[in-house]
Amino acid sequence: MIHETAIIENRQLMPEDASIGWYSIVRGFVTIGHNFRLGSHSSIEGDVLIGNDVTIRGKCEIPTSVIGSRVSIYSGVKFYDTPNPPDGPNLPPVIGDDVTICCDAAILGGVTIGERSFIGARVFVTESVPADSYVTLAHPRMDYVVRPRR
Q1: Residues 92-140: pLDDT tens digits?
Q2: What's the topology of domain 7-148?
Q3: 7-40 burial, b if ≥16 CB within 10 A, otherwise e?
């Protein structure tokens, strides 16, 4: 189901089982796998490749990126297509399969999130994360910590 308020360019590339929420935007060269869900007020723009069984919840911003299969992205997540916003070379973030990215996290361009990793809420990821990692904020300095996932 694609909500009538959504703006979709190239509907022919949208899988039939996709669900797109209110006021969302999908434009550019976007390739989407089956069982895709996009929440309200989100945008996907640029050259984006999305695997199967991906859910992106509301108020997310996804520019040029590569997103694997079975990925869950929660509300307010922002991807950047450069390692040095607002300027710099265009390098897409790459998200591996079976990754969870929690609310309000940010992923810089050129960063790779390894398969089966978990990115906690409000984490600002500036470096690549190995597979099977668990990344959360460390208190009180608010840096992030990468731990092996158990």
Answers
A1: 999 999 999 999 999 999 999 999 999 999 999 999 999 999 998 866 5
A2: UDP N-Acetylglucosamine Acyltransferase; domain 1 (2.160.10)
A3: ebeeeeebeeebebbeebbbeeebebbebbbbbb
